[in-house]
Design brief:
The protein starts with a helix and ends with a helix. Strand 4 and strand 5 form a beta hairpin. The longest helix is centred in the C-terminal third of the chain and has 30 residues. The protein contains 13 helices and six strands. With about 325 residues, it is α+β, with helices and mostly antiparallel strands.
Length: about 325
């Protein structure tokens, strides 16, 4: 559950991420103009994430308890709150840096807002208290937050080499007993098949998996990445276990491509955080406890909309 929580939102590369009554929410330092998210706008994000989780885990997710004792609903709403505070801070950073949406970008965002709003049922519109203009503001801020990341990291050397991102596929025999490992290695040297040796010596089939650089101990990584497809290592001692590694694929092209994208995003995030972190400290936005206390879910509300972010991805990231 904790791992899933870290993946809660798709806003930019930051892993930070109810009624219709409008209320001023964020407070901000005096050198910048006041910023507003209405309860309805905040609820769009909250209900989107609630429904996404229910689609995967069913409503049993609300019986879950987090490591600190919070209910999952409390945890989810806390993540939504942080997401909204960060998104608004990033729009202020964009303004500070003179980053604005072009007329073409504005047109696409307007089309997106109209599309999202048109798919809401009358009951959902009434429950959220939302207007098309509310949706437009959310999408404008979301797009601006993404754009400020791209603009402020443009020109930085974030290139990832194939060697850094390389992913390989292996099978491994694993045991805590050195003698068993040595026995297995001798049998392999005699020409016995890897899987058969694993079952004979350890009682289980060899584990097959993919590994990338930085995921294993240095000694394990060094031995594994030195193998060509089909080759078998000698006995490798690592972190209290003894291994024999067989390389199944010394260059998984598709997995390496995905890993490359992941590392690039991590570098972009780190580079952006160097700029964003200082700005956030000097221009902190905080949704008040009083305003946030109005945000909650009603049991049996029959609001199923969950496509706020997926529609954005279809429009701008496909």
């Amino acid at each position: 559950m904790k791992k899933k929580g870290r993946q809660l939102f798709t806003v930019v590369v930051l892993s930070i991420w109810l009624g219709g009554c409008a209320k001023e929410v964020p407070s901000i330092s005096e050198n910048l103009e006041p910023v507003i998210y209405t309860q309805s706008q905040m609820m769009v994000i909250a209900i989107t994430e609630r429904n996404k989780y229910e689609q995967v885990f069913t409503d049993k997710i609300w019986d879950a308890v987090m490591e600190n004792g919070d209910t999952f609903e409390d945890y989810l709403l806390d993540q939504v709150r942080v997401f909204l505070e960060n998104m608004k801070t990033m729009t202020l950073l964009a303004k500070d840096k003179g980053i604005i949406l072009s007329s073409g970008e504005q047109d696409r965002v307007k089309r997106l807002a109209k599309n999202y709003y048109s798919e809401l049922t009358r009951e959902e519109i009434e429950y959220l208290g939302i207007s098309e203009e509310d949706v437009l503001i959310l999408y404008q801020d979301y797009y601006t937050a993404n754009k400020v990341v791209e603009e402020l990291t443009k020109g930085m050397d974030l290139e990832v080499s194939d060697s850094e991102a390389k992913v390989i596929s292996i099978k491994q025999i694993k045991t805590e007993d050195r003698e068993k490992a040595e026995t297995a290695y001798r049998k392999l040297q005699e020409g016995n098949e890897f899987s058969n040796v694993s079952r004979e010596v350890t009682g289980v089939s060899p584990e097959e998996r993919q590994i990338a650089r930085g995921e294993e101990s240095k000694v394990f990584e060094s031995e594994a990445f030195a193998l060509a497809t089909g080759e078998v290592s000698s006995v490798v001692e690592s972190e209290g276990f003894f291994y024999i590694i067989q390389c199944i694929n010394d260059y998984d092209m598709e997995a390496t491509k995905e890993r490359k994208v992941q590392i690039y995003k991590e570098r972009k995030n780190w580079a952006f955080q160097q700029i964003y972190g200082q700005f956030e400290m000097e221009n902190r936005i905080s949704i008040s406890d009083e305003a946030w206390s109005e945000i909650s879910f009603q049991e049996g509300d029959e609001v199923v909309t969950a496509n706020f972010f997926s529609l954005y991805q279809e429009e701008f990231e496909s």
